[in-house]
């Protein structure tokens, strides 16, 4: 199953690269079609898992997939801000997202393998993962209360500053190319810089995403499958939800609740291994709690933004979102960090 799943993921990625080989602006019809496919595929796979391995494994898979999908929606906020901050042309946005997804899959695979090894050899790792989720939940909650949950300042990102310090960057995009040769020297394009920025954020996403799924199931295969299916549909989902993201003003509260709940579940699981009298939270109850929380925050978000057209949601992204396409910063001007390159960067 590992081999078949990895081959299927590689095949789907190859198809996505073929689709995006010629840059084009994604229509809503195209985005809806691929989103429907990437939702139907994991659900059908979950049905097969349920029928083949029983309801317990089936519930673990579906719960893990729902957790990953909800976390991936939050990730879309950051992707949206990065694409805006770097003034990525509409035709190139799907290529940036696809490269980011590939990087995320590689990082998740590494984190999943490390997590499986740690959990198999150290029982206290459940306590550690639980603590990570609880700390993350508190941070998300505080950011939500302050209204700064998705602020992005690309000029302070270490990855962006590092790459601009050692490599010259062209002032404009050159289609889907990551680098070009000009005047006898190799130069990166802004597309390469934004991809690096997305990769850097993928690392942060993996820190809370992988422990969250391990809080649902300890099977590394199910953890990988749920991560892969949630990430593969992220590119199409971005273009479907691009206009609706600003209305999900309470999503941070929901994610903080879900991560805190799973964190408590992991801590109780660790404690149960030491003191059998400590109760554990069943996976079916976890599924119910997650569904209810997501439904509640969606309804309250829509209610809160029914009259303002989403302006409440965009308040925390004003630094990046208020710019019109005409006065958006040139990609080469996004960071003024010192550079070892010649003055050609201006």
Description:
Helix 10 packs antiparallel against helix 11 (283-304). The model is unreliable at 310-346 (pLDDT under 50). The protein is built from 13 helices and two strands; from the N terminus they run H-H-H-H-H-H-E-E-H-H-H-H-H-H-H. It has a two-stranded antiparallel sheet with strand order 1-2. Helices cover 68% and strands 2% of the residues. The radius of gyration is 21 Å and the shape is globular. It has 346 residues and is mostly helical. A hairpin with a 2-residue loop joins strand 1 (179-182) and strand 2.
Helix content class: 55-70%
Q: Termini, distance in Å?
A: 52 Å
Please state the average pLDDT score: 81
Largest sheet: 2 strands, antiparallel
The low-confidence runs, each spanning 5 or more residues with pLDDT under 50, are: 310-346
Structure, briefly:
The protein has 346 residues and is an all-alpha fold. It has 13 helices and two strands; from the N terminus they run ααααααββααααααα.
Overview features:
mainly alpha; single chain; 2 strands; 346 residues; globular; two-stranded antiparallel sheet
């Amino acid at each position: 199953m590992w081999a078949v799943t990895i081959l299927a993921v590689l095949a789907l990625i190859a198809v996505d690269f073929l689709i995006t080989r010629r840059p084009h602006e994604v229509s809503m019809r195209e985005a809806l079609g691929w989103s429907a496919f990437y939702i139907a595929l994991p659900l059908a796979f979950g049905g097969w898992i349920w029928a083949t391995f029983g309801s317990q494994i089936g519930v673990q898979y579906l719960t893990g997939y729902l957790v990953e999908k909800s976390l991936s929606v939050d990730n879309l906020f950051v992707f949206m801000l990065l694409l805006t901050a770097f003034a990525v042309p509409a035709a190139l946005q799907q290529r940036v997202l696809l490269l980011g997804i590939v990087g995320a899959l590689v990082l998740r695979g590494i984190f999943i393998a490390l997590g499986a090894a740690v959990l198999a050899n150290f029982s206290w790792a459940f306590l550690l993962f639980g603590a990570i989720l609880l700390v993350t939940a508190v941070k998300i909650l505080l950011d939500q209360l302050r209204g700064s949950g998705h602020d992005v300042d690309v000029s302070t990102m270490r990855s962006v500053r590092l790459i601009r310090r050692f490599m010259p960057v062209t002032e404009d995009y050159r289609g889907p190319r990551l680098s070009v040769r000009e005047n006898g020297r190799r130069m990166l394009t802004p597309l390469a810089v934004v991809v690096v920025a997305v990769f850097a954020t993928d690392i942060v996403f993996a820190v809370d995403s992988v422990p969250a799924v391990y809080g649902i199931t300890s099977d590394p295969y199910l953890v990988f499958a749920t991560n892969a299916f949630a990430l593969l549909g992220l590119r199409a989902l971005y273009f479907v939800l691009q206009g609706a993201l600003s209305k999900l003003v309470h999503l941070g509260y929901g994610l903080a609740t879900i991560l805190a709940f799973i964190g408590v579940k992991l801590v109780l699981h660790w404690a149960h291994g030491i003191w059998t009298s400590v109760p554990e939270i069943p996976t079916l109850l976890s599924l119910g709690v997650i569904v209810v929380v997501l439904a509640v925050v969606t309804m309250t978000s829509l209610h809160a933004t029914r009259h303002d057209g989403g302006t409440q949601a965009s308040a925390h992204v004003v630094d990046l979102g208020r710019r019109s396409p005409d006065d958006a910063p040139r990609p080469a001007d996004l960071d003024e960090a010192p550079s070892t390159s010649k003055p050609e960067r201006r």
